[in-house]
Amino acid sequence: MTTTHEERPSVGADPLSLPPQPVPDAVTAPFWAALAEGRLAMCRCEHCGLWLQPPLERCRRCAGPTRFTDVAGTGAVYSFIVQHRATVPGYLDNLPYVVALVELDEQAGLRLPARIVGIDPAEVRCGLRVRAEFTELPGGDFTVAVFRPVDGP
Ligand SMILES: [Zn+2]
Predict the structure, then answer these.
(1) Domain boundary at 7, 42, 70, which?
(2) SS3 at position 30
(3) Local confidence band at 13 (pLDDT 50, 70, 90 cut-offs)
């Protein structure tokens, strides 16, 4: 006699329940490697010091070589949305959540998209001071930066 029992994967193992995973390439791999070590690093020109986001192999101002350099991880919300419906997998348990462009303190215009955590989404405002922290992205081997409000200017 045969059985028809089927193993059902747990919800956590269902790829459709997981957030999209990064796909590092030669240019962005150092960004992800730094995050895995609990550092936020952005692309910077070694000649003139210009920060470049998105990263480039050569500086757009002086054509100098670039490398990923640690930033302080502090900045301010430049713009944001409050996500009320799940449009990408992996965040059903976190609705509503905030996705922001965070302008880092190192340079005007140096902005990184990230989630804002630790605050009621209704309280988020442009200019809100935030600091990076690091969290594992479910479903893979990646660490991502999220930003949490801090006191002070
Ligand atoms: Zn340069």
Answers:
(1) 70
(2) helix
(3) low
Asked whether residue 120 is assigned to any structural domain, the reply reads yes
52 CA → ligand 1 middle, Å: 9
Question: For residue 55, how far is its CA from the centre of ligand 1 (angstroms)?
Answer: 12
pLDDT band at 17 (very low <50, low <70, confident <90, very high): confident
- 63-107 pLDDT per residue, tens: 999 999 999 999 999 999 999 988 888 777 788 999 999 999 999
Q: Is residue 6 part of a domain?
A: no
Q: Find the angle CA(51)-CA(60)-CA(33) to the nearest 5 degrees.
A: 45
Q: Indicate whether 95 and 36 sit together in one domain.
A: no
* Strand boundaries in 32-73, DSSP class E: 41-45, 51-52, 66-70
Identify whether residues 29 and 88 lie together within a single domain.
no
Could you tell me the residue range of the domain that residue 151 belongs to? 72-153
Ligand 1 midpoint to CA 26 (Å): 20
Q: Say if strands 97-104 and 66-70 run parallel, antiparallel, or are unpaired.
A: unpaired
Per DSSP, the three-state class of 141 is coil
Alpha carbon of 66 to ligand 1 centroid (Å):
8
Cα torsion at 81, 84, 89, 91 (round to 10°)? 90
